[in-house]
């Protein structure tokens, strides 16, 4: 039995070219994604997912968590509460500068894609409902990069709340892909008073769903999903409440699937540490 996922035939040549050194894989861009969670009174623990529009170059039609690439201006110092960039760096095996960028990208991208904002007027408070024309104007300015994340926080007198997140995982897109990302995964509870909704031009559908249900839909072929998303949902399906997730000890191990030719066929082979979470519910 092959321990991997059968790939379309067009990957065969690319795998062979990379193995032979005829093709160099693109560098992976640093990125951050946040698994936004909530406790539903009837359904229990739920995660927020977006379905990427079919026109996207990377993972079209796939269900994903909010997130995206690091912007150069995410390096700008911002008002900060909670674990320091150095502490985040130790969690994710990153230097302090990169850790700052990753945390800022995580908070910024989550707001851009879901309106969930992990920031507050003080280090002990968090903003309430982020819907409204003024918030939408700022969100659009962040999207078109006419407003930096630091400028956004400064304009509103807000402090980034890094203590509202926890480190969860680290995945790198396999070398056989033409677009690659070096992505750190965070988990966070949606702040009280806030509501997530689809505000992204990159998504055509959103869903609050139990992790086990989402994973089952993916395994049944109903929902397209990349291995990191499915593995993460499978892990989360073992928890009953958001507090349990946030309190869970984590050892972050870099996971990077690889393309291989097995018995003449192209396969995506998952890291041994992730195989169980991907394959089993």
From TrEMBL:
Alphabetical UniProt keywords: Hydrolase, Magnesium, Manganese, Metal-binding
CDD domains membership: NUDIX_AcylCoAdiphos_Nudt19
Metal-binding in keyword set: yes
Cofactor: Mn(2+); Mg(2+)
PANTHER family recorded: ACYL-COENZYME A DIPHOSPHATASE NUDT19, TESTOSTERONE-REGULATED PROTEIN RP2
Protein name: 8-oxo-dGTP pyrophosphatase MutT (NUDIX family)
SUPFAM superfamilies in the record: Nudix
InterPro entries (alphabetical): NUDIX_hydrolase-like_dom_sf (IPR015797), NUDIX_hydrolase_dom (IPR000086), NUDT19 (IPR039121)
Superkingdom field: Bacteria
